[in-house]
């Protein structure tokens, strides 16, 4: 093709096509870029350049923007452009992926290829992107906005019902009273206030039973988690007082809630409720939880009433002997919650020892009291920006009533699916009327229809049905009219045709039926999946040139054809698109494109000779043909060797292309219209030979295919 120069653009540059390469020149005809396989304007004065399958952006001075070349570069907007690569399906990559990033025309990659989908927002001021279906907005200043707030750490949230339940289960089962009397000088009214929470601060001894107080202050503790040392035989043997005193101990990190301060007959009683550490910090002064415990004993009266009743009754009794035991009195002396200087101890737990005698005692108290703190009531909550349905895609949707919590799903979708669609503002499940199908339901209906169609196309159901309809609608009910029917008339037919006759549904149906006994698992579905490919056997374009509206052929007209020669060429050109000139071949590697390339130029006799040489193992073969046959070997195993070749010719109905011994015969003169130095005489000799063969063999092959179809359709 001669050099072609386009008009100059706003940069004062023009694209030049020369010898299958493109480059840019300035107005002085100086070449300003290297030559590439393609160049085109790509927005804001920049250009896209292609090197085979790889692409880049060119500046007006001819320099490339990106150091590396990529599978895709999209148009420049505001100095930015999207670029990306295709990661093909493989053993390590289960599906084909398209990854994209954003770059600036300065050559800086602003966002690397981490996104799976990108597109400019409507206002052109930002780029919408996705990672694992989660949306992001990329701004032109290099920042990224995460509308899902997924970059934020999870928020901790107390599950109050769970905490309350665990608190009750820790406190109530096994609850009983413990006693501790003291004559320490402590001002009760300024130290112990109802509602306060205090920590023991030291290993706190108590007893399960005392009668009338021997001292002016009594601590009565309601607890289910005291260490009952008096029940440990080895301890009792070592120290009989433990049994005599009914000694119990609370850990120094035990917490108590001041429930009541009661005074009677000069005695003061401080009622403490033993609570788990978590309740001390998270329930604090929550009266609801404490009141529940106070009222939930299952007996007559509240805990406070029971504690007061205890003092009332014990004041009528004698003093218990152990209240007069000097050692016992010393162990009970220090007021609960106060340090040695009688200041309140820190509410925060002490670090527990890991070795030594204190560590041993500490661990024993924990073990005997089973006072392990409650846990697992703190849940982590995300920062999803759920703001309700108003103004969102959920508005007016029949499923919106089922939206729960902070967008944890709706009446149709679970959490992740719901949130992705909520943020994108596009939901295929959106319905405003129960009787109107959603987009998803329409797609599901279409999918099921396609699945049914695929099943039918895998069997003969679809092909037989389509062919029967075709006979009725296009062949006047007579399949014999298919003999010379011009299939190119169907290019715009939505049911039977296609812009490319090779892809026409009726061609695929006929080939699938007629040659089902030729190729393994041949079906319309297999052809649609490109496992096989339908194409014309003979190609007229190289000899006649393009057919221009049936008025003239671009190549033929160069040789001053007669009216009769033009009419003959026109007849053959339409005959080429009849069923007798169609074949179907395996498509692991394409036979069709190789037949029409510069070596064979559409002449099938030479092409078949090349196939034959590979089939029978000739000493010299076309290596490209050998490669194509090798890639399609699984479908062609029964056609190997000379006998296999003969079977192939017979099954494909190609006997007219071979000798009696079924060896490919030379049929055509291998001439083409653009051939240099060819005379008019030589051209029309090739023309006559080509037309004569097609006029005879193509209708003949059509008849043979029709006979096979009649048997399939029971039309004989």
Nutshell version of this structure?
The protein is of the alpha+beta class.
Percentage of helical residues? 25-40%
The SS-based structural class is alpha+beta
Shape: elongated
Radius of gyration: 46 Å
Q: What is the straight-line distance between the termini? A: 54 Å
The number of distinct β-strands equals: 28
| Count of helical regions | 21
Mean pLDDT: 88
Strand content: 15-25%
Low-confidence sequence ranges:
none
**Strands in their spatial order, largest beta sheet:** 16-19-23-22-17
Main sheet characteristics: 5 strands, mixed
Give a verbal description of the structure:
- This protein has 716 residues and is an alpha+beta fold.
- It contains 21 helices and 28 strands.
- Strand 26 (547-548) and strand 27 form a beta hairpin.
Q: What are its keywords?
A:
21 helices; 716 residues; alpha+beta
């Amino acid at each position: 093709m001669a050099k072609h120069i386009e008009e100059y653009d706003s940069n004062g540059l023009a694209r030049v096509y020369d010898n299958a390469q493109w480059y840019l020149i300035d107005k002085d005809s100086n070449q300003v870029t290297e030559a590439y396989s393609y160049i085109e304007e790509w927005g804001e004065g920049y250009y896209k350049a292609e090197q085979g399958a790889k692409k880049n952006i060119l500046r007006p001075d001819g320099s490339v923007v990106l150091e590396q070349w990529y599978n895709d570069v999209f148009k420049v907007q505001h100095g930015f452009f999207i670029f990306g690569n295709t990661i093909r399906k493989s053993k390590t990559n289960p599906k084909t992926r398209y990854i994209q990033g954003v770059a600036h025309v300065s050559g800086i990659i602003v966002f690397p290829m981490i996104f799976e989908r990108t597109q400019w927002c409507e206002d052109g001021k930002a780029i919408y992107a996705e990672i694992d279906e989660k949306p992001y907005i990329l701004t032109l200043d290099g920042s990224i906005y995460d509308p899902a707030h997924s970059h934020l750490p999870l928020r901790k949230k107390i599950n109050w019902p769970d905490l309350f339940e665990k608190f009750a289960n820790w406190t109530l089962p096994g609850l009983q009273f413990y006693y501790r009397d003291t004559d320490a000088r402590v001002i009760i009214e300024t130290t112990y206030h109802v509602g306060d929470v205090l920590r023991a601060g030291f290993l706190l001894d108590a007893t399960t039973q005392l009668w009338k107080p021997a001292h002016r202050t009594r601590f009565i503790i309601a607890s289910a988690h005291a260490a009952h040392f008096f029940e440990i035989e080895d301890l009792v043997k070592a120290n009989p007082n433990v049994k005599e005193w009914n000694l119990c101990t609370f850990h120094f990190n035990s917490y108590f809630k001041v429930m009541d301060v009661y005074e009677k007959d000069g005695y003061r009683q401080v009622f403490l409720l033993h609570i788990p550490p978590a309740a001390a910090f998270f329930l604090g002064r929550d009266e609801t939880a404490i009141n529940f415990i106070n009222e939930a004993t299952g007996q007559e009266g509240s805990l406070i009433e029971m504690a007061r009743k205890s003092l009332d009754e014990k004041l009528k009794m004698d003093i218990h002997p152990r209240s007069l035991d000097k050692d016992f009195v010393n162990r009970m002396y220090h007021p609960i919650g106060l340090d040695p200087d009688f200041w309140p101890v820190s509410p925060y737990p002490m670090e527990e020892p890991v070795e030594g005698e204190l560590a041993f005692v500490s661990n024993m108290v924990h073990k005997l009291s089973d006072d392990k703190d409650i846990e697992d009531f703190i849940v982590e909550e995300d920062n999803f920006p759920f703001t309700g349905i108003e103004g969102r895609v959920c508005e007016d949707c029949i499923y919106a009533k089922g939206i729960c919590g902070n967008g944890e799903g709706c009446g149709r979708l679970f959490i992740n699916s719901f949130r992705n669609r909520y943020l994108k503002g596009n939901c295929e499940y959106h319905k405003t009327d129960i009787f109107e199908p959603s987009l998803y339901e329409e797609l599901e209906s279409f999918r099921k229809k396609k699945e049914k169609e695929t099943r039918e196309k895998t069997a003969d159901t679809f092909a037989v049905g389509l062919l029967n309809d075709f006979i009725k609608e296009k062949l006047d009910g007579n399949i014999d009219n298919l003999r010379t029917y011009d299939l190119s008339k169907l290019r715009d037919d939505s049911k039977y045709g296609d812009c490319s006759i090779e892809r026409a549904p009726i061609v695929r149906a006929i080939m699938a039926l007629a040659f089902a006994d030729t190729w393994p698992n041949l079906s319309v579905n297999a052809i649609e999946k490109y496992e096989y490919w339908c194409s014309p056997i003979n190609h007229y374009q190289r000899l006649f040139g393009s057919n221009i509206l049936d008025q003239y052929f671009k190549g033929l007209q160069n040789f001053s054809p007669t009216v009769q020669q033009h009419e003959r060429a026109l007849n053959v050109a339409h005959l080429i698109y009849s069923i007798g000139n169609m074949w179907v071949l395996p498509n692991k590697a394409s036979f069709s494109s190789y037949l029409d390339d510069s070596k064979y130029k559409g002449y099938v006799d030479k092409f078949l000779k090349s196939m034959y040489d590979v089939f029978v193992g000739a000493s010299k073969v076309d290596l490209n043909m050998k490669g194509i046959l090798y890639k399609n070997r699984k479908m062609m195993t029964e056609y190997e060797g000379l006998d296999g070749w003969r079977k192939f010719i017979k099954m494909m109905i190609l006997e007219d292309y071979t000798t009696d011994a079924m060896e490919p015969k030379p049929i055509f003169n291998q001439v083409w219209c653009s051939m240099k130095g060819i005379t008019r005489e030589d051209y029309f000799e090739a023309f006559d030979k080509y037309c004569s063969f097609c006029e005879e063999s193509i209708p003949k092959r059509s008849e043979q295919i029709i006979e096979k179809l009649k048997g399939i359709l029971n039309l004989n």
